Amino acid sequence: MSAAPRPPRSRLPLAGADSRGLSERERAVRGFRDAVDTRLLAALAEPARLAILEFLFLKGPSDVTAIAGPQTQERSVVSRHLRLLLAAGLVRVRQDGRRRVFELDGQGLLGRLDAMVSGARRIVMICCPPAGPTS
Questions:
Q1: How many domains does the chain have?
Q2: Is residue 106 part of a domain?
């Protein structure tokens, strides 16, 4: 079972927990921080985790022993990477007897990316709208 991703927290110390009293630009900054899925980006930033994702793209659902085979890390390190990928919503896991089988979660990835892009679009319209025609 995949763990439900936690919503990102705002790290901007602005006027309490709500957005009352904040300027539109301050709300946009808070929205930017909330829109950036740091767990997803951190998971994608590590070459070893990208290699695991590539393996799953090519081979399909696999257990940790099969995934660790071509990797340069020990099986325990690959297991930790898989836990991070699971927490980031990039893979899901199912129990098959005594084995845990990991597979890509394509819809999870697309959903997380769509949420970041949607958040970025809202923010960009406030902070940096398109330039008007120049004469």
A1: 1
A2: yes
Contact predicate 64/79, CB 8 Å: yes
Structural domain harbouring 38: 24-127
Q: How far apart are CA 38 and CA 32, in angstroms?
A: 11
pTM score of the predicted model: 0.71
Beta strands in 33-108 (DSSP E): 62-63, 91-96, 99-104
CATH of the domain at 50: 1.10.10.10
Q: What does the block give as tokens for 46?
A: 């590590």
Please name the residue that has the structure tokens 């679009």. Answer: 121
Q: What is residue 33's predicted lDDT score, i.e. its pLDDT?
A: 78
pLDDT tens-digit series, residues 24-57:
778 777 777 788 888 999 999 999 999 999 999 9
Residue 37 lies in a domain: yes
Cα separation, 63 vs 50, in Å, equals 17
Instruction: Tell me the C-alpha distance between 128 and 70, whole Å.
Output: 46
Nearest residue to 115 (alpha-carbon basis) of 16, 39, 12, 3: 39
Is residue 1 situated within a structural domain?
no
Note whether residue 11 is domain-resident.
Answer: no
Percent of the chain whose predicted confidence (pLDDT) is above 90: 56
